[in-house]
Amino acid sequence: MSKGRVVLPWFIGYRFSSAGRGSKLMSFITSISTAGLALGVALLVLVVAVMNGFDRELRTKILSVVPQVSIYHRDGIDNWQQTLADITALPQAQGVVAASPFVQLEGMISHNGLVQPVLVYGIEPELETTVSHLELFVDPELLDQVSQDPSSIILGADLAAKLSLSVGDTFSLVVPKPNGGGRSAGVKYLRLAGLLRTGTELDQGMGLMGLASAAELSTVGGNVSGIRLRLDDLFQAPQLAREVVSALPFGYYSSDWTRTHGNLYHAVQMSSNLVWLLLVLIIGIAVFNVVSTLVLAVVEKQGNIAILRTLGTSPKQILSIFMVQGLLIGCVGTALGLVVGMALTQVAATVVGWIEALFGSKLLTSEIYPVSYLPIDNRWSDIAFIGITALALSVLASLYPAWRASRVQPADALRYD
Length: 417
What we know:
Blueprint: H1 2-17, H2 24-65, E1 69-77, H3 80-88, E2 96-111, E3 114-123, H4 125-131, H5 140-148, E4 152-156, H6 157-162, E5 170-176, E6 185-196, E7 206-210, H7 211-217, E8 224-231, H8 237-247, E9 252-256, H9 257-260, H10 262-300, H11 302-310, H12 315-359, H13 380-397, H14 399-406, H15 410-415
């Protein structure tokens, strides 16, 4: 008997949810509610995957190339080998995974009347690859070549395109002269040895030179600008930088990625949070359709409810019947939305490429966005959360209509039926 009481709400709830011959309007409204829920879930899956993609690319590309922590000295570092050893030996530097010297130059590149600003890093390839992932974007042999040839440089692909530069072309690099007081500049003619292609904003204005050749152009008299550190925990950078500088002699100061690219990272995080909020609200609006659908179902099925009550069905079972109907709408809509959303994430980048080819312009450019392509990163934890949230909201939405159905009095319902 108890088994029948459990099965009855599921059976009748399913029958109420299915299309009947005399319920075409109800079937249409139910379909609209299900489609609205599916659309909200699909959009949420797609947009969250895109925001996760931006977060991943920021971490794995931009923050894997730019310094996580940089330790500078106001007069430059003359014996960088000793300074590097001193820094890594500090108790405060326990979170440091690797360290490498660098020279930082800010200058202008001129070629055939075109001028663009550039941020040049002088690097030691053998050590640089321990603190960054340059080898993913530049051939290690090319890095060695640039290190050995003082007249060669690697430029970001977008920067080279702005200057109409091809590999092998020569151009002039203009940088402040040592002790120039900002009123004079030094000029060095360089050859483009290769291109840096990260697909991010770094391609717009970054250059790579050998450590020694860059040091000759620096404003600190041939010294290196500083030591860059790679950490095991990216988000400990501000605290570790302060602690390391406090343990070093006077004249040292620090910078970290939260100062150079922190605004970008926090903008991505804030956008992601806002997108989550807005799209959960979209699902909430779709769930209101479920409420209206079930309210109409209660009105339409009042005669059936009255008959069930006269046959001995309890108010609790009536409530369960409409709860089952809401759950079925939620299950179908959520499942369909997850499938469609996953399918969209697989083709979104291709569709964006087709649109760009059709209109002859790029929708995403690293001059405006962190990356110049549409990144996608599906995370099963997010997909599970979206599915559970949509189902939970659907069940909650069915509570009020189900409660109203359980309050229907058989005599009142049959009086006008």
